[in-house]
Write a structure and sequence with these properties.
- By secondary structure, this protein is α/β, with parallel strands linked by helices.
- Helices cover about 60% and strands about 15% of the residues.
- It has one domain: Rossmann fold.
- Bound molecules: adenosine monophosphate.
- Adenosine monophosphate binds next to α2 and α3.
- It is found in: Cytoplasm.
- Its EC number is 2.7.4.3.
- Monomer.
């Protein structure tokens, strides 16, 4: 039986870093829709050309495109980073997990206050030069998170799979909280 973990949380919460470490240590595949999309943009594929302006504005890429990517990349043991981001994506993922006999081990919600998120993202902009890490886009991405993605907190809470984790502190401290919350 397959196993899956979802990382949920606003941009800048440190999901990507934590998901990478957990995937590496547990032998899971990390599936980051943001990374896959950025790779398409960098390679200038037709998909990349289509999503580039959407990502630069800080808006969400259409659900059907995202779901196609997920179907292509799904693995037996998988950690989702940055997916699902809408209720439609979450419902489609539920169906996909049921179809493939994959058990959801938990949904990790990494919680960080808004001022700290903006500070972290602007720092990442200096280090990585991501084109969507400027102040205006960051505000838009946070707004989109509150509007489209935050409802998933209630969705997963109602299913009893939500694990809230304090995202403040060192990466090691946050990582230890995540392992404890998931019990793995
Ligand atoms: P991330 O690296 O997860 O912050 O994603 C960067 C950008 O990619 C987002 O601002 C969206 O434009 C797009 N994106 C990534 N994942 C998704 C998703 N699951 N649904 C829609 N858009 C996404």
């Amino acid at each position: 039986m397959g196993q899956a973990v979802i990382f949920l949380g606003p941009p800048g919460a440190g999901k990507g870093t934590q998901a990478s470490r957990l995937a590496e240590e547990l032998g899971f595949k990390k599936l980051s829709t943001g990374d896959i999309l950025r790779d398409h943009v960098a390679r200038g594929t037709p998909l990349g050309e289509r999503v580039r302006p959407i990502m630069e504005r800080g808006d969400l890429v259409p659900d059907d495109l995202i779901l196609e990517l997920i179907r292509e990349e799904l693995a037996e043991r998988v950690i989702f980073d940055g997916f699902p981001r809408t209720l439609a994506q979450a419902e489609a993922l539920d169906r996909l997990l049921a179809e493939t006999g994959t058990r959801l081990l938990g949904v990790v919600l990494v919680e960080v206050p808004e001022e700290e998120l903006v500070r972290r993202i602007l720092k990442r902009a200096e280090l990585e030069g991501r084109s969507d890490d400027n102040e205006e886009t960051v505000r838009r991405r946070l707004e989109v998170y509150r509007e489209k993605t935050e409802p998933l907190v209630g969705y997963y809470e109602a299913r009893g799979v939500l694990k809230r984790v304090d995202g403040l502190g060192t990466p090691d401290e946050v990582y230890a909280r995540i392992r404890a919350a998931l019990g793995i």
